Amino acid sequence: MDSILTSIKKLLGITEDYEHFDTDIIIGINSALSVLTQLGVGSTDGFSILDNNATWSDFIDDGSNLELVKSYIHLRVKLLFDPPSSSAVIESMNRMISEFEWRLMVTVDPIEI
Known about the structure:
Number of strands: 0
Distance between the termini: 38 Å
Low-confidence stretches: none
Mean pLDDT: 91
Radius of gyration: 14 Å
Helix content: 55-70%
Order of helices and strands: HHHHH
Oligomer: single chain
């Protein structure tokens, strides 16, 4: 499951072969990738996907908090594509997104003590 689109679809509960929502999901993924680029994660030139050919290793090196990046993008896309009906769940997801952003920024630009 190296494809960015395929893995995010799986996390959303959508099978790989069901392509009806691919455009919506790709837009959400690209929005999250744009935020990550602004945070300093990935290439400074930016990164976006067009289909299921883009892989996680195309965006970020293995071991560079890759799992945190996957979780972050999943939460961002989930809130855009299929938000929960409970405001408490939405608030919880927003807090997790904020924590992930902070952790990724610290990883990219660590504070020297």
